[in-house]
Automatic annotation (TrEMBL):
The keyword Transferase does not apply. PPR repeats lie at residues 94-128, 164-198, 298-333, 396-430, 499-533, 636-670. Keywords: Repeat. The keyword RNA-binding does not apply. The lineage of its organism: Eukaryota, Viridiplantae, Streptophyta, Embryophyta, Tracheophyta. GO terms for molecular function: RNA binding. One of its GO terms (biological process) is plant organ development. This is Pentacotripeptide-repeat region of PRORP domain-containing protein.
Length: 724
C-alpha cells in the first residue's frame, strides 16, 4: 500500500492539473482544531512577519515557534508565495508546519499545489496525521480526481483514521461533489460518530445532485436523531423544498426556522435562501416581506429579488429594483444581477444588457452567456442564441441545456434532438444530468418519438431521477402526446409531491384524448389536495370541456376563475370558450362573444370562428372571419386554404379560381402536408407526393392496397375534393 501511495504521489507530483476554485464551508470545524495547536506557539513574538522574510540572515537564529507563527500568518492571509519562501528557508519542518502549508494552499484554492505538497510530505518521510487529510481530501475534490481521492481514502483506512469525524465529513463532501452518492452514503452509514457537519454534508450533497426529496428525508432523520439544525442545514432544506416544488413544506420549514431562532434579519444568508425559495414558488408577496426583513442587504439579496420579479413577470418591478439597488445601498450590479434581470427583458432590452455587459468587460463569462442564450430563446431569437452559443470560449453542461431548451421552446424539436445526440456522442467530458433530461423530453413529445422516449425513461430509472418532480411531469406530457395515456397516468401516480404542473399535465393528458369528464374529476382532486390552480390549469380544463363538448361545465369553470380563485381570464381562455361555443353551431353568439371580449381579438381568435364556420358550413361567417385575419396576417396560408376548401365543397369554382389567383399574386403557396411514421426507433417524415424515400415503390404499393380496401375511388374527370 505504501509503495502504491508513493507511486501515485510521484505521478501527481509530475502531472499538471488544472487549478479550480471551489468554495466549501463543511470543514470549518476541522480548521478550528488546527488553531488549538497554535496555543503552544510563543505568544511573545511580536515582530511583523514581513520583516522576518526580509532579514533572511537572521531567520535560522529565530526560535521555531516564531518562524511557525510567521508561516501561519502568511498562510492565513493568503500570502502563499511568501509562505513558500519561508518554508523553503526552514531547516526542519514537522507535521504541523506541513499541515499549515497544505491548509493554506487549499484555502487559497490552489488545490493542485496542495496535493503536490502532500506528496512532498510523503516523500520527505513526514507522517501525516488526522489534521492533514481533511484538507488533502478537499484539495483532491477541487481537482475532481476520483481515482486519487479513493487512493487517499484507502490510505486513511490503513492508518486507522476512518473513524475520525472530520476526515469522514471531508470524504462525504468529496464523493458528493464527484456525484458518487453511494460511496458518500457508505461513509456516512459506517461513521461511529456523526456531528452536524456530517448531516449537512449529506443533505447539501443530495441537493447538489438534484435529489431534493432525499435531502428532505435526511433532514427529517437528523431531527429524529436529536440534532438541532444550524443555518447551513436550514439553507439546504429550504433549497430542497423549492427543488421538489412543495410550497407547503417550504412554509413548514420557514416556521421551523422561526421556532429555532435561525431566521433573523441579521443572518442575510438564511434570509436570502428563504427569499429565493418563495421566489421559485411564485409567492412574490412573501418574498418581498422576507426582503424587507433583511437588516443589511448585500448584492446577493438584491439579485435574488430582481430574479424573483423577472421570473414572475413583474418586469417593471425588476427594473425598478435594479435602479434602487445602487440608489439606496450604493451597490454596483455584478454579473449575477444581469443574469437575473435578463428573463424580464424583451429583445430590445436584452440586447441593451448584452451591450452593457460587453462594455463593462463582463464577457466572456460562461454563466452570463448562458443567460443570454435563455433570453434570446424566450424571445424567439434563435439566430442570436446560436451566435452566443457558437462563440462561447467554454461550453459547460448548463450552456448545452440552454441551447437545447431554446430549440424546444421555438418548435425546433428535431434540431433539439440532433443537438442532444451531439452532446451524448461528441462531448465525452460532459455527462447529461436531470436538467438535460427534463429539457429534452418535450422534444420527444413534440416529435412523437415514443420508443426513443421510452429509452430515455429507462435511463431516468437507472440514474435514479424518478423522484424528480420536474422529470416526472415531463414524462407525463411525453407519454400523453405520444398516445400512451396509461403510462402517463403511471408516471403521474409516482409523483410524491404533486405541484400545479403535475396536475396541469395529467388534466391536459386526459383532455387531448377526449376524456373530459376525467379531467374535471382530476381538477376537483387537485383543489381538494390543497394545490391552487393557475391560468394554465384553467386552460387545460377549458380545453377538456371544448374537446369533449361539455358546454355547461365549460361555462361554470370559466366563471369560477375570477369568482372563486381571483384569476382574470386571458386571451387563451377566451379562445377555448370560443371553440366551445363554436361546437354548438351558434355562430351569432360566437361573434357576439368576440365583440364583448376585454381583449383585441387576435388571429387565433378569428381562426377559431373560421374553423367553426367551416365545421357548420357557414360560408358568410367564414368570409367575415377570414377578412379579419387578412387584416392582421395577409399571408396566412391556412386561412386561404380553408376558404378554398369551403368554396370547392360548395361547388363555387369561380371563387376557388379567385382565391388561387389571389394566392399566386401574393406569392403564397399551399403548405405541404406532412406526416411522420416511427419504425424501429427511426422517424420518417413524408410530404404530399413525396418520392424521396428509398422504399418509395413499396410504400406506394401498400398505399394503393390500403386505399382500395377503404373504398377510395376516382370520379370521372374530377377527383373527390377533400380538405387539405
Amino acid at each position: 500500500m505504501a509503495a502504491t501511495m508513493l507511486a501515485r504521489c510521484s505521478r501527481i507530483y509530475n502531472c499538471d492539473y488544472a487549478c479550480k476554485c471551489v468554495s466549501s464551508e463543511n470543514h470549518q470545524t476541522a480548521g478550528k482544531r488546527n488553531e488549538n495547536r497554535n496555543l503552544v506557539i510563543n505568544r511573545r513574538f511580536t515582530k511583523p512577519s514581513k520583516l522576518i522574510l526580509r532579514d533572511r540572515s537572521k531567520l535560522r537564529k529565530l526560535n521555531d515557534p516564531s518562524v511557525t507563527l510567521a508561516l501561519r500568518n502568511f498562510a492565513d492571509s493568503g500570502l502563499m508565495e511568501d509562505a513558500l519562501h519561508l518554508f523553503d528557508e526552514m531547516n526542519k519542518a514537522d507535521a504541523f508546519v506541513w499541515n499549515v502549508m497544505i491548509r493554506g494552499l487549499c484555502s487559497s484554492g490552489l488545490y493542485h499545489e496542495a496535493v503536490r505538497f502532500y506528496c512532498r510530505m510523503v516523500f520527505a518521510g513526514i507522517k501525516a496525521d488526522s489534521f492533514t487529510y481533511p484538507f488533502v481530501i478537499k484539495s483532491v475534490a477541487g481537482i475532481s480526481s476520483l481515482e486519487e481521492g479513493k487512493t487517499i481514502h484507502a490510505t486513511v483506512i490503513k492508518l486507522g483514521f476512518d473513524s475520525d469525524v472530520y476526515i469522514c465529513n471531508s470524504l462525504i463532501s468529496f464523493y458528493m461533489k464527484l456525484g458518487c452518492a453511494r460511496d458518500a452514503e457508505k461513509v456516512f452509514e459506517e461513521m461511529p460518530e456523526r456531528d452536524i457537519v456530517s448531516w449537512n454534508s449529506m443533505i447539501s450533497g443530495y441537493l447538489t445532485l438534484e435529489d431534493g426529496f432525499r435531502s428532505l428525508v435526511l433532514f427529517k432523520e437528523m431531527l429524529v436523531n436529536g440534532f438541532k439544525p444550524d443555518r447551513f442545514s436550514t439553507m439546504s432544506a429550504l433549497g430542497a423544498c423549492s427543488h421538489v416544488c412543495s410550497p407547503k413544506l417550504g412554509k413548514e420549514m420557514h416556521c421551523h426556522a422561526i421556532r429555532s431562532r435561525i431566521e433573523a434579519g441579521d443572518d442575510v444568508m438564511v434570509m436570502t435562501s428563504m427569499l429565493d425559495m418563495y421566489s421559485k414558488f411564485g409567492e412574490v408577496s412573501y418574498a418581498e416581506r422576507i426582503f424587507n426583513g433583511i437588516i443589511q442587504r448585500n448584492v446577493v439579496a438584491w439579485n435574488v429579488l430582481i430574479g424573483c420579479y423577472a421570473r414572475n413577470g413583474r418586469v417593471v418591478d425588476a427594473f425598478l429594483c435594479f435602479q434602487r439597488m445602487s440608489e439606496e445601498n450604493g451597490l454596483q450590479p455584478d454579473v449575477i444581477t444581469l443574469i437575473n434581470l435578463l428573463p424580464a427583458c424583451a429583445v430590445l432590452e436584452g440586447k441593451t444588457i448584452h451591450g452593457y455587459a460587453m462594455r463593462r468587460g463582463f464577457l466572456p463569462h460562461t454563466v452570463l452567456e448562458t443567460a443570454l442564450i435563455d433570453m434570446y430563446g424566450e424571445c424567439g431569437q434563435l439566430k442570436s442564441a446560436e451566435v452566443v452559443f457558437d462563440r462561447m470560449a467554454e461550453k459547460n453542461l448548463v450552456s448545452w441545456n440552454s441551447i437545447i431548451a431554446a430549440y424546444v421552446q421555438n418548435g425546433r424539436s428535431y434540431s433539439a434532438l440532433e443537438l442532444f445526440q451531439e452532446l451524448c456522442v461528441s462531448s465525452s467530458s460532459l455527462v447529461f444530468d436531470s436538467i438535460t433530461v427534463a429539457t429534452i423530453l418535450p422534444a420527444y413529445a413534440e416529435s412523437l418519438s415514443l420508443s426513443e422516449g421510452r429509452q430515455l425513461h429507462g435511463y431516468i430509472v437507472k440514474a435514479r431521477y424518478e423522484s424528480n418532480t420536474i422529470i416526472l411531469n415531463s414524462l407525463v406530457h411525453m407519454y400523453a402526446m405520444c398516445g400512451d395515456l396509461e403510462d402517463a397516468r403511471k408516471c403521474f401516480d409516482r409523483v410524491l409531491f404533486k405541484d400545479v404542473v403535475s396536475w396541469n399535465s395529467i388534466i391536459m393528458a386526459y383532455a387531448v384524448h377526449g376524456f373530459g369528464r376525467v379531467s374535471i374529476c382530476l381538477f376537483s382532486e387537485m383543489v381538494t389536495s390543497g394545490v391552487n390552480p393557475n391560468k394554465s390549469t384553467f386552460a387545460s380544463v377549458l380545453a377538456a370541456c371544448s374537446i369533449s363538448g361539455m358546454i355547461e361545465e365549460g361555462w361554470d369553470r370559466f366563471g369560477s376563475m375570477q369568482r372563486e380563485y381571483g384569476i382574470d381570464p386571458g386571451i387563451e381562455h377566451y379562445g377555448y370558450m370560443l371553440d366551445l361555443i363554436g361546437r354548438t353551431g351558434n355562430l351569432s353568439s360566437a361573434k357576439r362573444f368576440i365583440e364583448e371580449m376585454p381583449f383585441v381579438p387576435t388571429s387565433r381568435i378569428w381562426g377559431s370562428l373560421l374553423t367553426a364556420s367551416r365545421n357548420h358550413n357557414e360560408i358568410a361567417v367564414a368570409e367575415f372571419a377570414a377578412e379579419q385575419i387578412f387584416k392582421m396576417e395577409h399571408d396566412n396560408t391556412g386561412c386561404y386554404v380553408l376558404l378554398l376548401n369551403m368554396y370547392a365543397e360548395a361547388g363555387r369554382w369561380e371563387d376557388v379560381d379567385r382565391i388561387k389567383l389571389l394566392m399566386k399574386s401574393k406569392g403564397i403557396s399551399g403548405t405541404a402536408s406532412s406526416s411522420t411514421v416511427e419504425m424501429k426507433s427511426r422517424t420518417h417524415l413524408f410530404t404530399n407526393g413525396d418520392r424521396s424515400h428509398v422504399e418509395t415503390d413499396k410504400i406506394y404499393e401498400v398505399l394503393y392496397i390500403v386505399s382500395k380496401m377503404i373504398g377510395e375511388e376516382e370520379e370521372g374527370g374530377r377527383c373527390c375534393v377533400h380538405c387539405v
